[in-house]
Amino acid sequence: MEKRGDGTSLYGTFIRLSWHASGTYSKADNSGGSNGGRMRFTPEAGWGANAGLKVARDALEPVKAKFPGLSYADLYTYAGVVAVEEAGGPIIPFATGRTDESDGKASPPDGRLPDADKGARIATITHVRDIFYRMGFNDQEIVALLGAHAMGRCHTDRSGYWGPWSNAENTFSNEYYRLLVEERWSPKVTHNGKPWTGPDQYEDASGQLMMLPSDIAMIADPEFKKWVELYAKDEDRFFNDFSKAFAKLLSLGVPFAATKPWYQFW
């Protein structure tokens, strides 16, 4: 299992890499998405939303060297698929066929990836919907995709936020939803005995787990909350819905007419 420099797993980072490589898609003009593998170039490599993902891209270079015929676009998305499955999550339908651009000239404008906080809860809820609706997702799919927050953690040297969402950050489960529903989440005001100076976030009673404002939005909005409560009770349903939504995300904007299943590629 790959590790970050601080010893934490790269599972969550690989999922974030595949997510951010794909989440720039707009159904209005079929722009953005994972095809092209443009995150390795300016401007996408330097976007604030992609801070820290160079760690994951660098960790995948030995794989690219071993399989030079594999496009970066397929590699970055498949890394997320493998991370989910290796961490105990569902099987994700996946096919190769993405191609690589030679530069970042075709990158979409910055601002298409979701922010964790828009300053007010209603604004954050509206922003989340705007981002996902632009790609063609509905409320149920939004909540299912956010279940990936059970994996990994935030780092202050990247996003400014701190901490894991769950106590089992290397295990894919429905824990994210259970914690959202069952724990008491309060604004974080201290960190290691000192005043918290980072962006607004929430913590549980122990101070060891965190939620972002966009996470709390999932239980503040009635339409989102009903799916959170369902997934908190039914992990099988979550796995099934996540598998479909994640496969859809990774294929947005990809011309699959000439695509081969991954097992034929190898």
UniProtKB/TrEMBL annotation:
Q: Name one GO molecular function term.
A: metal ion binding
**Keywords per UniProt:** Heme, Iron, Metal-binding, Mitochondrion, Oxidoreductase, Transit peptide
Documented EC number(s) = 1.11.1.5
Question: Catalyzes what?
Answer: 2 Fe(II)-[cytochrome c] + H2O2 + 2 H(+) = 2 Fe(III)-[cytochrome c] + 2 H2O
- CDD domains associated with the record: ascorbate_peroxidase
Q: Does the keyword Phosphoprotein apply?
A: no
Q: Tell me which residues make up the Plant heme peroxidase family profile domain.
A: 56-254
Q: Name one Pfam family in it.
A: peroxidase
User: Where is it found, in Gene Ontology cellular component terms?
Assistant: mitochondrial intermembrane space; mitochondrial matrix
Q: Where in the cell is it found?
A: Mitochondrion intermembrane space; Mitochondrion matrix
Name the Gene Ontology biological process terms: cellular response to oxidative stress; hydrogen peroxide catabolic process; response to reactive oxygen species
> Per its UniProt entry, what is the enzyme's top EC class, as one word?
oxidoreductase
Residue ranges spanning the membrane: these are none
Q: Has the keyword Protein transport been applied to this entry? A: no
**Quick one: where's region Disordered?**
95-117
InterPro entries for the chain: Ccp1-like, Haem_peroxidase, Haem_peroxidase_sf, Peroxidase_I, Peroxidases_heam-ligand_BS
Protein family: Belongs to the peroxidase family.
PANTHER family (alphabetical): CYTOCHROME C PEROXIDASE, MITOCHONDRIAL (PTHR31356:SF58), THYLAKOID LUMENAL 29 KDA PROTEIN, CHLOROPLASTIC-RELATED (PTHR31356)
* Protein's recorded name: Cytochrome c peroxidase, mitochondrial
